[in-house]
Amino acid sequence: MSQTRHTRTLIIGSGPAGYTAAVYASRAMLKPILVQGIQPGGQLTITTDVENWPGDASVMGSDLMARMGAHAHEMGAEIIADHIKSLDLSLRPFKAQGDSGTIYTADAVILATGAQAKWLGLPSEGHFKGFGVSACATCDGFFYRGQAIVVAGGGNTAVEEALFLTNFASGVTLIHRRDSLRAEKILQDRLFRNPKVKILWNHTVNEVIGSDEPRGVEGVRTKHVKTGEIAEIPCKGVFVAVGHAPATALVKDQLKLHNGGYVQVEPGSTRTSIPGVFAAGDVTDHIYRQAVTSAGMGCMAALDAEKFLAGMNGAKVSEADACAAATDIPG
Ligand code: FAD
Ligand code: NAP
Q1: Segment 61-80, tens digit of pLDDT
Q2: CB of 282 closer than 6 A to ligand 2?
Q3: Cα–Cα distances in Å, from 19 out to 86, 158, 232, 244, 260?
Q4: Assigned superfamily of 4-116+244-324
Q5: 33, 113, 297, best to mutate for ligand 1 pocket (most atoms within 8 Å of CB)
Q6: 267 SS3 class
């Protein structure tokens, strides 16, 4: 049965940004509700070892996120397994609707919806998605034991996925469109040293080829970016790791966006173009996109929300009043 829940602070997303916002908002006695979305714990739950979270030389991504969730819960945040399907920021209080049917109303919203994997956009990629084409090595790598695998991309994710896949594959070919990687040097070193990895520089994947009965990948057709030469690489699995796009579907027509769709915030703050709405983590960050920076922004968003709500003096106010309160926030 549908119900309406009111909260002073609604946090949308359960990655490092959302959980950190929940810790700080709870300690500010804002009694936040955090809605987890379809990926509880966020992107780090699909990776293995995280080696750059301060305080842990190495920690499993899923363990780290479980700890963050438990911390937020212990501080008093109400954590709800639901997914927000619509968000109306034209109303005060703001109104969100969950897939569960629950309506959430909130005086302040912290948007921490993170980012989602990008795809190459090839029709054949779509055709074989789930039948040999994947964007998550930790989820699907196991299916390709003893097989040849291709990874497309040149960033941290591509290199980590390629290295992880060497645990299963007979060999991994990393296909990158340039002649140097974007990934951190420490990861590049590991990649270059791994005897199971071959790198195909200056190539793009132009087509995924395979059979239909049963549906499965047989290889990829590649193109040299300079010569245009076409070649085929046999493989059973294709892992696409060409970056992540901000998850802004809920707000793209309501908030100002910039740099390819990231939520725009005032410099040095998490304030968006609508007073009372704050954005933190990968949904607003086109530069750093790290767990620790997302967590830092989650902290900022909770502190910004606290100041905003203090300006509202706890009362439900009109949009004009809310704008005035936001303008009064010290910089
Ligand atoms: P995310 O972690 O993306 O979480 C977004 C959350 O929003 C999810 O819980 C999702 O369910 C929720 N959500 C989305 N839409 C809705 C909705 N409509 N309703 C409700 N909830 C919603 N960074 C590092 O610092 N170190 C690493 O080692 C590292 N490894 C990585 C490995 C991989 C494979 C990937 C993909 C990324 C890695 N990163 C790493 C980057 C890091 O994961 C991100 O920077 C970080 O997770 C971003 O945190 P976030 O809280 O902004 O969003
Ligand atoms: P990314 O850093 O944006 O890298 C995307 C890669 O894909 C780039 O090499 C890019 O090529 C390539 N690419 C993009 N579009 C392509 C296309 N259409 N065809 C072929 N190649 C394409 O993305 P990411 O690796 O997913 O990382 C996202 C963020 O998470 C980054 O900030 C990263 O640091 C972070 N992260 C961190 C860790 C870690 O700390 N260990 C691990 C994973 C991710 P170009 O280089 O030519 O642009």
Answers
A1: 999 999 999 999 999 999 99
A2: no
A3: 21, 26, 45, 20, 25
A4: FAD/NAD(P)-binding domain (3.50.50.60)
A5: 113
A6: coil
